[in-house]
Design brief:
The protein is mainly beta. It has four domains: about 1-65; about 75-195, Sandwich (Immunoglobulin-like), CATH 2.60.40; about 195-270, Immunoglobulin-like; about 285-350, no CATH class. It has helices at about 135-140, 285-305, 310-320; strands at about 1-5, 10-15, 40-45, 60-65, 75, 85-90, 105, 110, 120-125, 140, 145-150, 165-170, 170-175, 180-185, 185-195, 195-200, 210-215, 225-230, 230-235, 245-250, 260, 270, 330-335, 340-345, 350.
Length: about 350
């Protein structure tokens, strides 16, 4: 194992070897690091040798924590409830002055110092060996209250491409008055580009006691409004996951209409046409049967009171009277034999006493 002083031209400040290795492969080595310069970077390298050849070097870079005051306590970091990924949303094709959601982290909830946190200096770590994190400390602001604040819009100053606004593996550093440091677990800010969107409704018709539900996406925290004929009928706030959902009461529908959805900074969007049920005036089969029965009843009443039915009955009685005897049930009068009656019982003709000869 070898240790090099990075700040002084990679001077070797320690070299050592371990020959006792446990059966499970574990080994350890101790060296006195109290001679290292406080807050200076050092490179630790190690490799193994099996008697035939060496392995590749494994290396790690560290910062020495040797403050002049030996009684100083080094800051600590507690990763409980620490988020390693934070998702943010940014609108494109918008005129809004605040097109992105923002991240806030109270670092003092995670960093601590036995000597007091009021004197801690909080910052964003910048790895000099790489350039991908050079803007991290410029776009992430840390207030005197210890709250780290990131607005992805700030990255637009360096690159207008929204896909480059995500920050990967951001590390925060807490430094006490003696220069002792502690770092946080890395956290990534993932920026997701979105736009205002309105999806199809769950249904296109609704009765008075129903709702037609529309849903879509938008910037979290913004208000989505829906109007019918220019009149606002409902509104909702976009959720933290960029989705929203709102309903239009069926009681607001008197005819087919196209709802219009709006959100600040974006053009309004027309949704699918919605309408009350059976907007063409259709009649149910039961209603049709009832109407037919009523019409028949009214027609029958009209015929009866107009005398049409009575007239037909009179005609039938007149026809029977032409072939029937008004004098008796067994005597039948015939027009072909005036003055005579046919006696059905005796089967013979008999004089008609009521006949008056001409």
């Amino acid at each position: 194992m070898e240790v090099f002083d990075v700040s002084n031209g990679f001077i070797n400040v320690f070299t050592g070897a371990v020959t006792e290795i446990e059966s499970n492969g574990y080994w350890e080595m101790e060296w006195d690091s109290r001679l290292l310069t406080h807050n200076m970077q050092y490179l630790i390298k190690a490799r193994s040798y099996d008697g035939y050849e060496y392995s590749d070097w494994m290396e790690v870079q560290v910062v020495a924590d040797n403050p002049p005051d030996a009684d100083n306590n080094r800051p600590t970091f507690d990763s409980t409830n620490w988020q390693t990924e934070i998702t943010l949303f940014c609108e494109f094709d918008t005129t809004s002055q605040n097109p992105c959601t923002k991240a806030e982290i109270n670092l003092l909830e995670f960093f601590d110092d036995a000597d007091g946190i009021n004197s801690l200096i909080l910052s964003v770590y910048d790895d000099e060996a790489k350039s991908s994190d050079d803007e991290f400390g410029l776009v992430i602001n840390i207030g005197i209250d210890g709250v780290a604040f990131y607005d992805p819009k700030a990255m637009g100053f360096y690159n207008e491409d929204m896909d480059t606004w995500s920050l990967s593996n951001v590390i925060f550093v807490a430094t006490d008055p003696f220069g002792s440091k502690e770092i946080s677990t890395p956290v990534s800010f993932n920026v997701v580009p979105i736009e205002f969107y309105v999806g199809p409704p769950d249904q296109n018709t609704a009765s008075e006691d129903e709702l037609i539900i529309f849903s879509g996406s938008g910037l979290p925290g913004k208000t989505v409004r829906v109007t019918l004929g220019g009149i606002q009928v409902n509104s909702t706030v976009v959720l933290d996951n960029s989705t929203w959902e709102l309903g239009i009461p069926g009681a607001m529908l008197s005819k087919p209409v196209i709802p219009v959805f709006s959100i600040s900074g974006s053009e309004s969007i027309q949704g699918e046409e919605i309408s009350p049920p059976s907007s063409d005036g259709g009649i149910s089969p039961v209603m049709i049967i009832a109407i037919v029965v009523v019409i028949i009843a009214l027609l029958a009443g009209t015929l009866f009171f107009s005398g049409v039915v009575t007239f037909e009955e009179d005609d039938e009685e007149s026809d029977e009277a032409e072939g029937a005897d008004t004098k008796g049930e067994h005597l039948v009068k015939s027009d072909d034999h005036p003055g005579w009656l046919w006696d059905a019982e005796k089967e013979e003709w008999v004089p008609d006493p009521d006949h008056i000869g001409e």
